[in-house]
Amino acid sequence: MDNISLAGFDEIEVTSAAPAHAEALISAIHSYGGHARLVSQPTDAKICLLTEGLASLSLTERSFAALEALRKCRTGIHACLLGLDASSHLDAIGGEAGLCRSFRIEKPEARTFAFSLEECANLEIFAYHVLAALLLPDGDYTLRNDAIWQDAFSQNLKPPAGTIELPYSPVWLISGGARGVTSDCAMELARRTGGTFLLLGRSDLTEWPDWLPADADLKSLRGSLARNATRPGMPQKPAEIDRLARKLLAGAEILSTLNAIESTGAKARYIQADIGDQAGLQEILASIMNDEGAITGIVHGAGVLSDGRVDDLSLQDFQTVFAPKVEGFETLLSCLDASNLKHIAVFSSASAVFGNEGQANYAAANMWLNNVSELLAASLPDTQVKSFCWGPWHGGMVDDTLARMFAERGIGLISRSEGARIFSDQLLLSPHEQVRFVIGDEWGAQ
Ligand SMILES: NC(=O)c1ccc[n+]([C@@H]2O[C@H](COP(=O)([O-])OP(=O)(O)OC[C@H]3O[C@@H](n4cnc5c(N)ncnc54)[C@H](OP(=O)(O)O)[C@@H]3O)[C@@H](O)[C@H]2O)c1
Fold it and tell me: Whose CA is nearest to atom 43 of ligand 1?
């Protein structure tokens, strides 16, 4: 190991969230001529190494603990948040880089950076890498045995070549595929590959009463339901009316997706289930695979938002976002043998790459998806693994308010047809080594 010297460095605080890692860091700091002390939370040192991302907690709790540690850092302190971006245990991986990038957008004065490491049993080597990165200029760093590099946005989206005809009839399992922008991608895939489409979502197929106008939007539907509140079984209270209107629209959207897929000649089936319910999903998928054959590709589009500024985000906000996106993906993988899959696509977000105001939890969850995709691609040479870091679409969770906000920031929206085309091109035709890419405008420089 090259010699590094911390002589002349200010005292370094090391948080005790991951005790063994913290002890190794402190001992290494002393042996390289520096001063260090163990603290339960950052206090008054100018440099702090935060071990919360390595703590023995669940991924969601760890990510929230990491945010809490960042919040406790005084302005101007140089804080490095340590976490794993590569491990054989998916739950040990984190999305610290997405968290830090979002944190800095909301607090531009913060000097908080992510050091993303691969799992290393030798804590002496681990500590050496961290200290080597600490000597580098401010930045988010990826630390490996043979190299340390600063994460920077680079667009590696190569135009896909040719067309593809799958030599088998695919069976696609698509979480979130019946609604939102994932449904556009499912419909485009059906046009390209045919086969069977299993679309997973929580909403039920509430029947559309024939006395309601077809094609109503949420506002007009609420109005029609309110005017018909005296009909038997109809809700009276505004909150109940709103709930029914949303249920009806969800059911109509699911039906419309199923019809659109079937109109291409492919087969479509809706699975009503919560992706977080591992036992329930395992049972349902076993029975479905009995009927439809082995699943050949998964698309993980299920996701929800629970936005808030970094000072306000709660553990519950992390749980809400991590449940479908992170735990949901783990559940899907646990129900299937990934080595039998020909395609794996995950819907990540540009917020993981650039950070985003009000979305530190969402950016961390999506960064986890990116990290896990890279690992899956490396271990599955015969599987196309793609992580789509989408910018905002014109649809799905981007409502009119969010669309206006992006327009004010000069960030273009991805049209539903263009997004679906890019998705299918990249999933089916791009080279194996192209795993994660950003689609949409860059906003990191803003
Ligand atoms: N729209 C964008 O601009 C944008 C940008 C970047 C990334 N993305 C990502 O793209 C994906 C789709 O987003 P969207 O905009 O289409 O959002 P959306 O309209 O809110 O759709 C989300 C989908 O996820 C499903 N879902 C949520 N929680 C679930 C759960 N626990 N179990 C099963 N299904 C669940 C929903 O179905 P039910 O409600 O019926 O369960 C719905 O089909 C998300 O992962 C999102 O993070 C979107």
Answer: 176
